[in-house]
Amino acid sequence: MHQAGYDCTVSYVDSSGVKKAVVLLSGGLDSATSLMIARRDGFACHAISFDYNQRHRLELGCARAVASAGGAVDHRIVRIDLSRSGGFGRSALTDDIAVPKDKPQGGTIPVTYVPARNAIFLAIALGYAEVVGAFDIYIGVNAVDYSGYPDCRGEFIEAFERLANLATAAGAEGRGRFIIHAPLLRMSKAQIIKTGLELGVDYSLTTSCYDPAPNGSGCGKCEACRLRLAGFASAGVADPASYQR
Questions:
Q1: pLDDT tens, 109-126?
Q2: Per-residue pLDDT reduced to its tens digit, 131-173
């Protein structure tokens, strides 16, 4: 039986013989690796990024660079305001809440969690996939070296895949089966980095910091920076990102 996200080798091929996939691309380390895995799997990749008025919007420039270097056939940036000014907020990434520095978040869901973000992003990516004729969607969520977000778990990916095949005309009419690929789900950050390097990912194009300086340098202290730095250290590779002194 197919397990959502990590085992399936069956994919939809259109009448022209092209395998298409939609790849969620933030401009970070994980999504850059996910893009190259999709390329390795033989897909023509339609990358999609989101400008949700996040405090680290500098990542969108990185997403453009990663999409270009990674050979995406198309890259779209969708604007959706999830910030406090847009009537949402309630996250350190989208509201006037300080990003925690130099301390692990423990077993609680951290304040950097953006309410339902991955559900929102996947829903839009699903609509985009139906329009371009793709039945494969790649997302770079990770449930090993991560911050404890509920929408990065395998249970969520599996549930969304079931929803995708119920909520779309393409799924209901049997034109294909949507597959949500989460190839990094059970990998450590070091394993992700090693895989990406083997596939030619240029990590100097990526950013991970939740609270970067105006010039793009990482703070080196938020949880995203610390996970990234620890991953490169474990992989035995220098992190090409710049950090504030």
A1: 999 999 999 999 999 999
A2: 999 999 999 999 987 888 999 999 999 999 999 999 999 999 9
**pTM for the model:** 0.93
Domain CATH code at residue 129 = 3.40.50.620
Q: Is residue 245 part of a domain?
A: no
What does the H/E/C string look like for the chain? CCCCCCCCCCCCECCCCCEEEEEECCCCHHHHHHHHHHHHCCCEEEEEEEECCCCCCCHHHHHHHHHHHCCCCEEEEEECCCCHHHCCCCCCCCCCCCCCCCCCCCCCCCCCCCCCHHHHHHHHHHHHHHHHCCCEEECCCCCCCCCCCHHHCHHHHHHHHHHHHHHCHHHHCCCCCCEEECCCCCCCHHHHHHHHHHCCCCHHHCCCCCCCCCCCCECCCCHHHHHHHHHHHHHCCCCCCCECC
Q: How many domains does the chain have?
A: 1
Structural domain of residue 100, as residue ranges? 20-208
